[in-house]
Design brief:
Layout (H helix, E strand, L loop, with lengths): L9 H16 L6 E4 L7 H5 L1 E7 L17 E8 L5 E7 L11 H13 L4 E10 L9 E9 L20 H10 L4 E7 L8 H9 L4 E3 L3 H9 L3 E11 L10 H23 L2
Parallel strand pairs: 1-4, 1-5, 5-9, 6-7, 7-8
Antiparallel strand pairs: 2-3, 3-4, 5-8, 6-9
The structure holds 8-iodo-guanine.
Length: about 270
């Protein structure tokens, strides 16, 4: 049943997706899940041995990619901890943004699928615009909290959910044990797909935002509702509009992600192994 059909129960589709993943990967219980945003793609191979790799679009509720070309894959990876114990990580191969117009259920379907697959810990990563001139492009930042400026919720009906400590203080401390230089910030999610005007960036700065992007907050709310422990990480890939003298360029965004890639990928892998 199509996810965006009001008659469909999105949690039933997430259950079907988890069953498909268990069958296709041969793993019926994953412990953690990771969503890799711009610049974070290199982390998957550093996490551990790939146990299974399946085409994402074959998983119920994951639409075939609109952009032709490479077909995203979802991987099950065997993560070895220092004490020798093993955890199975699900690296979701695709992320749907609100601006794609596929509805908010599609945006959070990967999170609900991970929860249905038994996952307890979710690591959400993204590329973001930086509002703090002291944190230049290439800087990874832990999410301390978020501003959901999309005017949307992934939750339907009278589903009241507390969001205190939504970004797990325990996992943030663990991340800082791995890299004590890691800073924290408040992430603002905007609907996009346009970037902000300098006036909007000044507004966001006044509202207390340190990074701005087009993902993550909605996914994190769904993760809390599903009972997952959440860690969020942004890679500042550009200084937001007006913060730096030169205008935004998509090329700059991609390039900063590539340059910072190896360092943040090993950071993420080390955190996931804790
Ligand atoms: N809204 C918004 N999203 C982004 N994503 C990235 I990468 N950089 C930006 C940015 O400057 N603004």
């Amino acid at each position: 049943p199509p996810l965006d059909d009001p008659a469909t129960d999105p949690f039933v589709v997430a259950g079907a997706a988890a069953e498909h993943i268990a069958r296709a990967t041969g793993i019926d219980g994953h412990d953690m899940a990771l969503v890799l945003g711009s610049g974070w793609g290199g982390a998957a191979e550093l996490l551990g041995d790939v146990v299974a790799e399946i085409p994402t679009h074959e998983i119920p509720g994951f639409a075939a990619p609109t952009v032709s070309g490479h077909l995203p894959v979802t991987r099950s990876i065997r993560v070895e901890r220092a004490d020798g114990s093993v955890r199975l990580a699900l690296v979701i191969g695709s992320r749907t943004h609100l601006y794609e117009g596929k509805g908010v259920r599609a945006v959070v379907h990967p999170v609900r699928t991970a929860a249905a697959a038994g996952v307890e810990t979710l690591i959400l990563t993204n590329g973001a615009g930086g509002l703090d001139p002291d944190r230049p492009a290439g800087t990874p930042v832990l999410l301390a909290d978020h501003l959901n400026l999309t005017a949307r919720s992934p939750l339907e009906g009278a589903t009241f959910v507390d969001l205190t400590d939504l970004y797990s203080p325990r996992l943030r401390t663990l991340a800082r044990d791995v890299d004590p230089t890691l800073g924290e910030g408040v992430y603002a999610q905007m609907p996009g797909p346009h970037y902000e005007t300098p006036a909007e960036i000044r507004m966001l700065r006044t509202l207390g935002a340190d990074m701005v992007g087009m993902s993550t907050a909605i996914e994190a709310i769904a993760a809390r509702h599903a009972g997952l422990e959440v860690l969020g990480l942004s890679l500042v890939t550009n200084l937001a509009a007006g913060i730096s003298p030169t205008p935004l360029s998509h090329a700059e965004v991609i390039e900063a992600g590539q340059v910072a890639g190896p360092r943040i990928s090993s950071l993420l892998a080390d955190i996931a192994k804790r």
